[in-house]
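Our working data are protein records whose layout never changes between entries. An example says more than a description, so a record of this kind follows.
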Amino acid sequence: MLFGEDGDLIDYLKTIASVTDIVGAGTAARIYWDEARQNAATPYLVLTIGDGESHRHIAGLAGVRKSTIHCYCHANLPSASETLAEAVRLAFGETRQRMTIGETFVNWAIADVIDSGTDPQQAGSDVRRYWRRVLIELQHSEAKS
């Protein structure tokens, strides 16, 4: 399974030293699917699935899908969220490249930083959380049925 909390995409990011140097490694890695844990320490990543499209031909599914993932890179400083976003971007290469993520063949992957902002301050706190969003596009294999 490529996506989800126990998915191969999160496991892949846990193999990238420039990412784990920032968010931690192994089971302590602060990489989450859909939402961060309550009171999660920064910096951390939150991945969500955007849109996707299965390629079809006259006989049905072609076994190829294009998926879009949004990766939010949260930190307490703008420069820290920028550094984390750059590590995620480079994990997928600077150009379209082929790779295998878990059991899934990825025909091409590309990532780019597309957005940034701040989360609202929590009541009674003066701590700001800054984020950058990395858009990750994958064309990958999928089951035909």
In short: The chain has one domain: 8-141.
